[in-house]
Design brief:
By secondary structure, this protein is mainly beta. The protein is built from 1 helix and 13 strands. A 5-stranded antiparallel β-sheet has the order 3-4-5-6-7, with no helix packed on it. The protein has a 4-stranded antiparallel β-sheet with strand order 10-11-12-13, with no helix packed on it.
Length: 185
Amino acid sequence: KDCHGNVVPSQLVHSTTHECYWRKDTLFSARVPALGYSLYYVSNVEDTPQTAPEGDVFPRVLPVTTPLTANSHDGLMLQNEFLSIKIEPYSGYIAHIFDKRTEKYLTTDRAAVPVVINEYYHDAWSHAKNFFTDEMARFSDAEVSILENGPVRATVKVVSHYNKSTLTQYFSLTSNCDKLTVKAH
């Protein structure tokens, strides 16, 4: 709750220390004045209902409900009040990003496609090489899962592979934010 007793939407989220200590972190949006501070109170879950204030639209991960065809499979929709992003289930690629305000697609083809670039003719600093366009392969066999799905942030985790390499991508949408955040490991 804020200092006036108003409920502030919050959620438990994945912590980077989860693998070692099996703990989660708490995420909430705070309003802090410039060069100032704000006071928030944490109470038991039973004492603080996690409901949306009237009119708020929270980020969500939803299953795609379009029919299966040879070229289109079910996947996940990551969306908030500004963006709707379809993630393909087997590749982990972004099929499209749709801006709800302008009602236009922001991508014309797949996005966030992890590729393997041929760097054979480059030295460690890529002297006189300004372009990395020689694509050798793509990461594939993706495992797509919902990591977070709450009132503050929704995150989809994509783990894909190329030979013995593993790439983990985290696609996140936050409420009241018109940007898709992508973290890659």
